Amino acid sequence: xxxNSRAIAAYLGLAIGDALGSTVEFMTPREIVAQYGVHDTLxxxxxLHLKPGxxxxxxxxxxxLGDSILKEKQVNALAIACAFDNWMRGxxxxxxxxxxxxxxxxxxxxxxxxPYSDHDAGNGAAMRVLPVALATFDQxxxxxxxxxxxxxxxxxxxxxxxxxCECIVFMVQDALRGVDxxxxxxxxANQLAxxxxxxxxxxxxxxxxxxxxxxxxxxxxxxxFFKTKDFRECLVDVVNRGGDADxxxxxxxxxxxxxxxxxxxxxxxxxxxxxxxxxECIKQAESLINFNISMSV
Length: 297
Ligand code: MN
Ligand code: MN
Prior knowledge:
Blueprint: H1 3-22, H2 29-36, H3 57-72, H4 77-89, H5 97-109, H6 130-135, H7 141-152, H8 159-176, H9 181-195, H10 214-227, H11 231-239, H12 245-260, H13 267-272, H14 275-289
Helix pairs in contact: 1-12, 1-14, 3-4, 3-14, 4-5, 7-8, 8-9, 8-12, 10-11, 10-12, 11-12
The protein binds manganese (II) ion (2 copies).
């Protein structure tokens, strides 16, 4: 498996997780069982009444971010803020409260860095972080961290969001290199929990109905990713927990896609993803992973 195809799998994984999870977003596991048994198809619906295979803000903000990086040939906070602002003007089908508030503030101030707030620890910056992981694949650790923060702080400026975004990016990058799961666990997931005990996910009871709080989101993603054996099992496990399921699906999808690769993604999901989204994800993944212009953040 080469890095290119793993990068494509990560991007398609993000979109597939988003499309799969959106059907059951804000439902409890009990409600999901009553309505679907086990939810495992890209059937659309949900509170947004999506068509089958369609995606939400998690994927469309990622594409807006990737576009900005490719156009600017760098991870530039101001350009990203403008790209997100344009995205918001396009009346997306859903948008997080923190994203909206800080983009409205950006319109007034022109400052692409949101003010620091411990309360802005939602999962909005982490759900769209994949383009940064791909674009900075060959960069130094410092450059990767800087790019993560520039991207995240446009809407989410909080220590826990930063820690999560950086952890996801380094995990995805190592998964693209083909490391094993124990390594991802020891080097990244457990380290994050050591540094920020909020993220300790090794609990007896698996987290159900995860909220949009980044700590909940990542705990659910890690529990599902580390206890399952393939892409399909991981995504089905995480979205059937309900709650912010499109976002747990999106983050689990980028990670599992990078780790298990393209062959591991069920054909019905690859075929079920809305075709323009699928083409955009593939195109961006290929461009971003081969993006080796020196970064200035
Ligand atoms: Mn969403
Ligand atoms: Mn969501």
